[in-house]
């Protein structure tokens, strides 16, 4: 291998990732799209990077390392407490989207319409590619619109995290069962082994990791926590691969466990520079590895996949959100927010391609799907999140309510239009008890508010008691 060629390739890829990401950002699009398009440009279009060379093999290893760090960061950025708080609803919404996406994708692959997926495992892989929502794309669009604090926005993010976990879990079961021809017995055996590993991993991790972090904090050398944690992520990946899980699942699990520790923010901030350097390499390599031999087939396959992906998420997640008690507009927003596919879909396709489980046309379809769903999501989110929101208006009156504790000052408020939530944080500090007046149809907004209060620094410092009032105490005009 030519070391200078490898270094040249790495420099071209990193610079292309930065320029492509910057261009996408200026066009108000997710950076990942710019990075993938940059890879397509320097790969199949211009041909600067030769992926058949020894130097490219070295770059591919860096791509796998970037992938490991990406999944570790996704786990680290998850909110385990929020996932537990919203667990039933997030799981219901995620599961509905997954079931419909996998079913439609698998049935489509079995029909062979516009796609060649003849092996027993290929239709399932196609179904999995259609499953996982890209939380990064939706979160960024909603954040730029100033709607990230809404309950439905939070539910999209939590359901997307459940999507990622379940998708990688199913992928691991599929990979582990291939050796026995995916018989029912092998699926059950592999599933039992994987669930046992996850349970043991989480139990041991929650017992040992805080002690390891505490010991590392006493070290005097720079970035000790980061270096030790990233080493543990590599060990977790090896352990996961050893028992049949995809190696990235080990890094994801470790990140989820660490997300509940106080040191999470320190680790996250210190690895930001490293991830900003490495993770874009993975997405550029995705574009580099794409082939453009048959554009017509790519267009047909990608278009069908996009229609199925968009329809399955909107319909499945909308119905599940309505079943969970959300209003029509909220449920529609959740359905639209769950449309984009990117990181985990690409991860599934990349791993499947590297193991010879799918051919290049299906990999190319995944890239088409990523770009198309991102564009569609940006357009639809702008439409469904437009309009005035109903938020919290705080009343300065001190009132007594039936059933309220005697002899305490009470801050009472109800739902109305256009009031800053931060005023609630300030005014609630002058009262002993925070009483929440909730009218029919706004129970979820109140529940979301309580979660926000419970997890903010102000609420923890004030040690507020939160009471949910039943509707009979609500004036009719509310």
Describe this structure in words.
The protein is mostly helical and 478 residues long. The protein folds into two domains: 3-384, Up-down Bundle (Na+/H+ antiporter like fold); 390-473, no CATH class. The protein has helices spanning 3-26, 31-45, 54-77, 80-85, 87-111, 122-129, 135-144, 151-177, 184-216, 224-242, 247-258, 264-270, 272-288, 295-323, 328-337, 343-354, 360-384, 421-427, 443-455, 457-462; strands at 390-398, 410-417, 433-436, 465-468. Helix 7 (135-144) packs parallel to helix 17, helix 8 (151-177) packs across helix 15 and helix 9 crosses helix 11 (247-258). The termini are far apart. 45% of the residues are buried.
List keywords for this structure.
478 residues, mainly alpha, Na+/H+ antiporter like fold, 4-stranded mixed beta sheet, 4 strands
Spatially, the strands of the biggest sheet line up as: 1-2-3-4
Q: Name the CATH architecture of the largest domain.
A: Up-down Bundle
Low-confidence stretches: 388-446, 453-478
Average residue-wise pLDDT: 76
Number of helices, counting only DSSP H or I runs of 4 residues or more: 20
Secondary structure layout:
Blueprint: H1 3-26, H2 31-45, H3 54-77, H4 80-85, H5 87-111, H6 122-129, H7 135-144, H8 151-177, H9 184-216, H10 224-242, H11 247-258, H12 264-270, H13 272-288, H14 295-323, H15 328-337, H16 343-354, H17 360-384, E1 390-398, E2 410-417, H18 421-427, E3 433-436, H19 443-455, H20 457-462, E4 465-468
